[in-house]
Amino acid sequence: MKNGGAVGETPQEELATGERSTRTRVARSILDHGPSTVADLAGRLGLTQAAVRRHLDALVSDDVVEPRDQRVYGTRTRGRPAKVFALTDCGRDAFDQSYDVLAADALRWIEENAGGEAAVAAFARDRMEAQAGAYRRAVEAADPAARTEALAKALTADGYAATARNAPVGEQLCQHHCPVAHVAERYPQLCEAETEVFSRLLGTHVQRLATIAHGDGVCTTFIPKAAHRPTRRSGDRPGGGPGGAGTTGDPVKSGKNVKTDKTDKTTSQASASTAGRNPA
Length: 280
What we know:
By secondary structure, this protein is an alpha+beta fold. It has helices spanning 12-33, 38-45, 49-61, 89-93, 100-113, 116-141, 147-157, 181-186, 189-202, 261-274; strands spanning 65-69, 83-87, 162-167, 170-175, 207-210, 219-224, 253-254, 257-258.
C-alpha cells in the first residue's frame, strides 16, 4: 500500500545500485565459468533470459564483455555456432588486483640482465614448482579417476576459477581466469612451465589447446584417458631425464605400439613449444 505516494516507491539511486550489482554478478559468473550463453547465465543466476540480455547489452556497451561464436572442440554439429559472451581485457582488469606492470618489468630485467629467455624460463619453472606443492598434495590424495577434478579445485583456490569436464577421449582442464594473463602475453614461458607441471602432476603427456593470454576465453588443457599414473616429483622429468611436459619415463602401451623414451621426449618438446599458444 502506498502512503502519500512515497511508500512502495524505490529511489532511483537504489535502482541504479541494484542494476550495477546484478551486472557485476553477470560478469563474475562469466569470469568463474568462462564464455557463457544467455541461457547459461540465466540458469546460474536465477534471472530471466530477457533480463540477462539487458545486462549483457550494458556490459558490452561498457567494454566489459564481448559476444563471440562458441568454440567447438571435436565434431561440429549442423547450424550456426551458439553465441557466447566472454570477458574483455577491460572486464578482466576489473577483477584483477595484481601488479602486472611490476611483474612484466621484473621479467624484462631478468631477460635483459640475467641470461635472456632461458633465464625467464628458469624463473617460470621455479615459480610453478613453488605453487605445485599444494597441487601435488591434492592430486595424490584423490582417487586416480578424480585427479583432474582435484587439480581443478586446487587451482581454483589459487584464483584460477578452474573446472574439469569430460571430453570424447579424455578430460579437459579449464581455467576460466588467469591472474598473470597480461604478463603471459609477453612471456609465454609462464604458460609453458604451467603445462609442464600439469603433466608431472597427472603423470602423463598433456596438451594445451588454448590460453587466455593469447585471446581465448579459457585456458584449456587436454588430458588423455590414459592419465593419472603416479605423479612425478619436481626432479623427475618425462623420459627419465631433463625436459618439458610429456609422458612418464616408462614406455606407454598404446594399442599396438610401445613408445620409446626417445619418442616421449620428442612429444614432450613439441608440447612445451606449443604451450600457451592457440591451436593452429
